[in-house]
Batch of 2 targets.
Target 1
Amino acid sequence: MNISIVTVGKLKEKYLKQGIDEYLKRLSAYAKINIIELPDEKAPENLSAVEMTQIKQKEGARILAKISDDTHVIALAIQGKMKTSEELASTLDQLATYGKSKLAFVIGGSLGLSEEVMKRANESLSFSKMTFPHQLMRLILVEQVYRAFRIVRGEPYHK
């Protein structure tokens, strides 16, 4: 399975890079993982609704340009469906079983994802009702994808 993580914003924190690199190394036994970092739009503190939409649309256009038509897209969004680790594992297993070898997880910038990206997504996934920094979300996502592959293979993993 080829998995892309399309994410807005650069990862600056060394400790997050180290954690992500560790899980990417572990995941290499199960899937090809490609992280695509896209630049975020500069956003001042007090934005109007129109300005927020414009920023999300610009970031969304960059995201959509990186996703091929034959890719199954899972958007990470607070309003998405919450799943257990076992349910995520089942989702990944079913995608592989039914020939969906290209999968993209999409992580938006600080304002979230554009309407266009949400429409393109085959499903949306929420890890929590809480808001997480997109950099931290990247680490949480790769850990959960790794956990999902371990679950699918029936291999032990810390609960």
Target 2
Amino acid sequence: MKPTHVAIVSLLALAGCNSTTPNLEPLPGSLTYGEAGPTRKTISPPGTMIQNRFMHQGTMVFETYEVQPDHKYKLVRRSVADTWSN
């Protein structure tokens, strides 16, 4: 394969990657659930990561929030575990 073809294929493959994360909606148990937008504030410095875990519909949910420059929480990551060991 010619180097230009390899470059084009590589660029097309990278174009399909999306580096932005979708907006995660808070679940019951999330730190910002039931609030009009992420209005919860903290005294932690901006950039601090806050962890939260809770049960939701029989699964363990792990969430990570990032403290924004205005000291509000932003939900940046969520993972779910179907099984939970003590």
